[in-house]
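Practice problem 4.
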């Protein structure tokens, strides 16, 4: 009886020991899993921080590269059309011209600075002296005479100075004189043009003396050359017609712009 009880007690003790061992093993596994999870979390956070730092550094590098890259924009200077003299004069463009420079004693020129100008006022533009300065300091001078209201003209640098066609314009200035009296005297003189030139007919009913006629060379409905030409007629009887000398208009047709007597 005592031997059976003793054997049964030993068997019970082994079961408890085995159960304790199983519990210890399970606890060990749980602890190991938890520790592993905790060890991985800092690694993940560090990776995310590194990625964020890399992104910031890359963005800063790109910004620095954008700042250090040379700008492709160039200084184009003033924009056309450009208005001056209280909007009475409109400068449409500055360009190059090669050929005969009517504003420089008919000298030959190549890529000379040229100006397209319009008289925006309601008066006769007797004279305009125009200065143009480029952004690199190069300067041009233009002279324009006898431009009726609303008319356009191409003028050329009076010193026959070449223009590269690329440098921007920094400054345009003008000194001008206008007249409300100058004109064609249409009630006294009739002007006609044909293949033989320009004719004047006295329709005033009275004799006219010492007529001064100013005219421009015309090409493509624009005055070609800023400086006008002048010719004279000594006398014109009532009803008489005469052909005026416009031989200075060597590059196009002549257009009379004013008559005085």
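Answer key:
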């Amino acid at each position: 009886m005592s031997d059976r009880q003793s054997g049964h007690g030993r068997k019970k003790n082994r079961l408890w020991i085995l159960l304790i061992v199983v519990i210890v093993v399970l606890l060990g596994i749980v602890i190991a899993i938890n520790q592993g999870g905790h060890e991985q979390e800092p690694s993940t956070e560090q990776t995310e921080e590194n990625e964020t730092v890399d992104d910031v550094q890359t963005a800063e590098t790109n910004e620095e590269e954008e700042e250090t890259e040379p700008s492709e924009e160039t200084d184009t200077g003033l924009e056309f059309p450009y208005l001056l003299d209280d909007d009475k004069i409109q400068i449409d463009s500055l360009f190059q011209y090669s050929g005969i420079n009517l504003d420089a004693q008919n000298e030959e020129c190549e890529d000379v600075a040229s100006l397209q100008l319009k008289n925006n006022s309601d008066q006769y533009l007797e004279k305009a002296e125009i200065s143009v300065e480029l952004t690199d300091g190069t300067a041009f001078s233009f002279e324009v005479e006898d431009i009726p209201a609303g008319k356009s003209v191409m003028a050329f640098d009076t010193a026959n100075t070449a223009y590269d066609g690329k440098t921007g314009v920094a400054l345009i200035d003008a000194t001008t004189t206008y007249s409300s009296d100058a004109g064609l005297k249409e009630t006294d003189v009739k002007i006609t043009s044909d293949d033989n030139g320009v004719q004047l007919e006295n329709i005033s009913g009275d004799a006219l003396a010492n007529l001064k006629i100013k005219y421009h060379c015309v090409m493509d409905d624009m005055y070609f050359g800023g400086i006008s030409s002048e010719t004279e007629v000594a006398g014109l009887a009532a009803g008489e017609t005469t052909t005026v000398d416009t031989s200075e208009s060597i590059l196009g047709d002549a257009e009379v712009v004013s008559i005085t007597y």
